[in-house]
Amino acid sequence: MTTITNLPCEIIAGIFRKLDHIQFLLPSILTCRHFYLSYKESPSLAFDITHHEISPALLPYSIAVLEASRMTRNRTSIQELLDTLYNEPAALTQRLHDIPLAGLTEMAVTHGLVKHFADAFASDAWSLVMSHSPVQGESESEGERPSGGFGLSPTEQFRFYRAFYRIELFLRLFRGDPTAIRRSNIFEDEQVEMFLSRHPPWVNEQLGCVHDYIEKRFSHASRDVLAHDIEFGEFGIDYITDGLAFIQQLEQAAPSYDEQRALLSSTAAVGTGQVELHQALTKSCESEGGDDGGSWEILADYSEDEIKALEPRRDAEDEDTGPFTVWKAAHDQSAREAWVLLADNGLLRRCAYVLWDAARIQRYDLLQTFDKLSQRPFTTESWDVEAHEAMAYSFVRRSKIWQKGGRGYWDGE
C-alpha cells in the first residue's frame, strides 16, 4: 500500500504549493525527513506560496515593511528604501529570493494583519456610507463578494491594502529612541520630504482615513488604562506609536486591565519614538510660499496645469479617477492647508471617501452623499471636546498623585 511518504518529492512539493499560508509550511516540512527533503529539492516552494498569498502589486510593500523592521534606520537607509519602493518596485520584488523562510513567514503574518484591518475598515465604511445614501444600488452577486464581504473591486481592495501597508511602513520607519531620532534629524519635515511628498494630497488623505480608523481601534482598546492609570497620567500618554500587530494584541488582551497595561507599558508601545503621523499628514500640504498670501488660494481657482502638478509622480499602480474626483469635490473651496486630515472631514474619512472606485461613486451617486455628509457637524468619540477636556484634566490630577508617590488605578476622585 502506497503512503504519502512514498510519493516522489516533486509530488510532495506540489501538494505543499497548495498551502493557503506560508505559516503552514514549516510545521509540514518538519513532520518527517521525506517532507523536509522534498522542500529542500524545491528551492522555489516557499516563494511560490508567498506569491500566491500576496499579490504582485503588494509584494514590494510587504518586502519594504519587512526590511524597515530589520535595518539600521537613519536618513540614508530610509531614503534608499523608499526610493527603491517608489522608483524601482521590481528591484524589491527580486529580493524575495534572498529572504529566509522566517522572513517570509513574518511577511505573511503582516499581510494577514493588513487584510484583517483593511477588510474590517472597508466593511464598516461601506455600511456607514449606505446608512446615509438614498441610492441602494443593485445587490452585488455572490460572485462579486471577495473577502471584504460586500463587493470590493480588485482595485479598491488593492487601494485599501496599500494604504494600510503604507501606514505600517511609516510607523516602522519613524519610530525608535527619541534621542536617536533627533540625532538623525528625522522630524516631521523629513517624514514629509522622504515619504509623504511622494503622494498627491488625495492619496495622503487615504492615509488619513486609515490613521483615523486605527486611532479609533487603539482608543477603544486602551481607553480604560489611558484614562485611569496614574503613571500614564503623569506622562500624558494617549497616543500610539506602534503598528497593527500591537493594536491586535491590545484588543485580544481585553478585558484584562493588567494585560493591557503591561502591553501599553512596553517600550515598543509608547513613549519611545517620534512617530508624528498626524502632524506629518497635516503638514504635507503646507504651502511652500510662506505667508505671501498665495497659500490661501482655494482649489477651485487652480488651473488645469496646477492641478496636474499636485501629483508628484504618475501612480501606475492605481489610475482610477474616483479618489481624486471625490477629494476635489470635497476641497474645491479649501486652501491647501486644509486638503489633508481636516478635522471637519472626519465623518468623510470614516466613510473612506477617497478609497472608492469611480464606478462605485457613479453607481451609488456618492458625490451627492458625501456632499451632504460634509455639511454635517462631525462629532464622534475620537473628536469630542468634552472627552478631550476631561482627559486633559485627568492628566493634571493623576500627575499630582504620581508626584506624591501614588501609583495604580485612579477612580476619578
Comma- or semicolon-separated keywords:
413 residues, mainly alpha
Structure description:
This protein is mostly helical and 413 residues long. It is built from 22 helices and no strands. α5 packs antiparallel against α6 (75-87) and α9 (154-173) crosses α12 (201-228). The longest helix is centred in the N-terminal third of the chain and has 32 residues, at 101-132. The model is unreliable at 137-149, 178-186, 268-273 and 289-294 (pLDDT under 50).
Residues in helices, as a percent range: 55-70%
Roughly how many Å is the radius of gyration?
Answer: 24 Å
**Beta-strand residue percentage:** under 5%
Uncertain segments: 137-149, 178-186, 268-273, 289-294
Mean pLDDT: 82
Q: Note the total helix count.
A: 22
Biggest sheet architecture: none
Order of helices and strands: HHHHHHHHHHHHHHHHHHHHHH
So what's the overall shape?
globular
The total count of strands amounts to: 0
Structural class, judged by helices and strands? mainly alpha
How far the N terminus sits from the C terminus, by CA atoms, comes to 76 Å
